[in-house]
Design brief:
By secondary structure, the chain is an alpha+beta fold. Helix content is 25%, strand content 24%. The strands form 3 sheets. It has an 8-stranded mixed beta sheet, sandwiched between helices. Strands 2-5-4-3-1-8 form a 6-stranded mixed beta sheet, with helices on both faces. Strands 6-7 form a two-stranded antiparallel ribbon. Strand 4 and strand 5 form a beta hairpin. The radius of gyration is 25 Å and the shape is globular.
């Protein structure tokens, strides 16, 4: 996966230094990292060491001892093989599984001894503090400054990786919405039948061109709104309320494995700096199936904030009740006729990476609404995330929507646009993905054609 040339990042302030980790992988793992696709996630177990937080680190990958080279006998000096991004996954009593991505070897091995210098001299205490694999917890600012000074090759790799690090410092409201829109686009693209490796347009994302919408930075085909056609209707209806961006994505192969259009609508008050939130819509034209994801984050205490609850309640009170169809057979139904789900994130940042959706869970609206009512009845400040039963991971959710088990079917497109209008009035930002694929939909009600 390739990206537009990253902007140069100013690292003069130590507060902007990334989290660092030293890794000592073996030959086999380095061979995996050195393949053609640097976007793949590679995981391995290492001797357990405490990671202070489950966030991504800039990984300094050291070459195995027998690859270091011998300089006049004795123990060979350690050398840096390359750089990448690492995040801790799961831990056991013995091992810590870590996930490495975006790793790439340097043009030439660089002596690692330069990492542990202070005032031009090797600092023995600093050297001892980073002997193990794991995060650099002592002198990280000094180690990072030394790393950047090693060579132009190293500096270029640091510049490449910095925008991709999961670093929460300095997130803007816009970047948080970018994260949610990026997540929804990938999730709905999977439902539409797209494999991430086929999504060539999304690999070229330009931060400077994004504006208020994540999809504004994509290289997809811009859509010219057309009268009397579903394509472009959202832009025609909402194009004057703020910032509207439309992109079309279709496979270039003869089988037309995916064909969908994404429209991002941002109300003017959000464009002007208001703290809006995102509702994401998936609409399948062939079966008129609608699915809505409200993106929410719990507060620091694990509770939904009063503002979030009020916005959700106002939205749900405004949307039109969707028609329900009589069942014709035992298998002619959706598990949930209400198309509204809540996508609740783990506290992860915006990144440009599109190889996976963000961590978190998806809950049906009625489950969250019941928890809100129960909390209100007992006088509690709000429902806690811990009271909700985990419903679906994104992969399962995408599969069940694709197969027609989840979502409301038989919804006229005009009704879907009424839902979008309610989102813009209450949340401020909507992403609408309209799927024109003619593929049949698995075992659920979505494959049925109703009179």
């Amino acid at each position: 996966m390739t990206f537009a040339q990253p902007r140069r990042v100013d690292f003069l302030s130590s507060a902007r230094s990334p989290r660092l980790a030293i890794l000592r992988p073996d030959h086999g793992f380095l061979r995996l990292l050195d393949d053609a696709d640097h976007t793949k996630q590679r995981s391995y177990s290492q001797p357990c060491r405490d990671w202070p937080e489950v966030k991504s680190h800039l990984a300094v990958l050291l070459a195995p001892a027998d690859q270091q080279g011998d300089e006049g006998g004795g123990e060979p000096p350690e050398r840096i093989w390359g750089l990448g991004i690492v995040r801790p996954a799961r831990g056991t009593d013995r091992d810590r599984t870590v996930v490495v991505t975006r790793a790439r070897r340097l043009r030439a091995l660089v002596p690692a001894s330069g990492l542990c210098c202070a005032g031009g001299e090797r600092d023995a205490a600093l050297s001892m503090s980073i002997q193990e694999s794991g995060p650099v917890t002592v002198g990280a600012d000094t180690v990072f400054a030394n790393l950047r000074r090693m060579s132009p090759d190293v500096e270029a790799e640091v510049q490449r990786l910095m925008p991709l690090l999961n670093d929460a410092e300095g997130w803007s409201e816009g970047e948080l919405r970018w994260r949610d829109e990026r997540d929804a686009l990938l999730l709905f693209a999977k439902i539409a039948g797209l494999a991430p490796n086929d999504f060539s347009e999304v690999r070229l994302w330009d931060r400077t061109a994004a504006g208020a919408a994540f999809i504004g930075g994509l290289a997809g085909t811009e859509v010219q709104p057309m009268l009397d056609d579903i394509r472009g209707q959202a832009a025609t209806r909402f194009g004057r309320i703020g910032e509207t961006v439309v992109r079309a994505f279709a496979s270039r192969r003869g089988n037309r494995s995916y064909d969908f259009e994404a429209t991002s609508i941002t109300d003017q008050w959000v464009v002007d700096g208001g703290e809006g939130s995102l509702d994401a819509y998936y609409y399948h034209v062939g079966t008129r199936t609608l699915v809505t994801l409200r993106y929410m984050s719990p507060g620091p205490t694990g509770l939904f904030s009063p503002d979030a609850r009020h916005s959700l309640d106002e939205f749900h009170n405004r949307v039109r009740r969707l028609p329900r169809h009589p069942r014709r057979s035992a298998d002619d139904y959706s598990l949930l006729e209400d198309p509204l789900f809540l996508r609740v994130h783990e506290p992860v940042p915006f990144t440009t990476a599109l190889h996976r959706t963000s961590s978190g869970a998806i809950y049906p609206y009625d489950q969250v609404a019941a928890a809100i009512s129960a909390a209100a009845a007992t006088g509690l400040p709000g429902p806690s995330m811990g009271e909700l039963i985990r419903h679906l991971v994104p992969t399962d959710f995408a599969r069940l929507v694709r197969d027609g088990w989840l979502g409301a079917s038989g919804v006229p497109f005009e009704v879907a646009l009424d839902w979008v209008a309610a989102t813009i009035d209450t949340a401020g930002v909507a992403l609408l993905v309209v799927d024109f694929s003619l593929r049949r939909r698995g075992n659920g009600s979505g494959i049925k054609t109703r009179a």
